[in-house]
Amino acid sequence: MDLAEIIKPENLVYKKPNLLTNKTMHYCPGCSHGVAHKLLAEVIEELDIQEKTIGVSPVGCSVFAYNYISIDWQEAAHGRAPAVATGISRVNPDKVVFTYQGDGDLASIGTAEIMHACNRGENMVVIFINNAIYGMTGGQMAPTTLLGQVTATTPCGRDLERNGYPLKITELIGQLPGTSYVTRQSVHTPAASRKCKKAIKKAFENALAKKGTSFVEIVSTCNSGWRMTPVDANNWMEENMFPFYPVGDIKDAEKAGPEAFTKKN
């Protein structure tokens, strides 16, 4: 029997989302970005919102994300994606707007933008890739770098007295009244990827329902920046990052309205 008849496309476990282009990704082998892109494409496709979705990608490893997911994209300066997304969402309230940002971009250079956009409850989705390092620019320490973690700028490990504590920015964002859904997920196993996809889908459904800001952190690997094999990077992430950045929902609530801040007699 012809092998093509045994292995038919409809019988394959994996089916490439139609929204993913055929362009070869520039990400390093073992990088989490590719899986995150696939999940995003699947969610947008399943919700049938390709024509109304606009992604905003700033400077970082994902700067060329527009090459891989066939939707409308807007580039932003480093850290400024939430500000750009705010403008797009307000001018086009019928669109579904999301940002796709790394930890150096979102938690350092763009801290003001992300905090105030979330506090205002801008109607958008934020996809936050946290690999605890500046991946694109040479593997420097990021705000999310763990204590003791070796990077290009902390060759002896991140030191508390010199560098301060790692920033759990997702927990901070979960305290802001404008956020309706805040969660931390990962994509290092098939089971984790399925949970992450559900979280991303919930975030986009919230955007469609005008529930304010939904924030999805994806704890990720950077095996190139960490100087590890993909397998070792996954193991290191499980042993070191998950204890400090535990996976799960942080906030799941309706967008808080003005009445929540009105003094009651």
UniProtKB/TrEMBL annotation:
It holds the Pfam family TPP_enzyme_C. One of its GO terms (molecular function) is oxidoreductase activity, acting on the aldehyde or oxo group of donors, iron-sulfur protein as acceptor. InterPro entries: 2-oxoacid:Fd_oxidoreductase, THDP-binding, TPP_enzyme_TPP-bd. Coiled coil: none annotated. Keywords: Oxidoreductase. The keyword Oxidoreductase applies. The keyword Iron does not apply. SUPFAM superfamilies: Thiamin diphosphate-binding fold (THDP-binding) (SSF52518). It comes from the Bacteria. Residues 67-218 form the Thiamine pyrophosphate enzyme TPP-binding domain. GO terms for biological process: cellular respiration; small molecule metabolic process. This is Thiamine pyrophosphate-dependent enzyme.
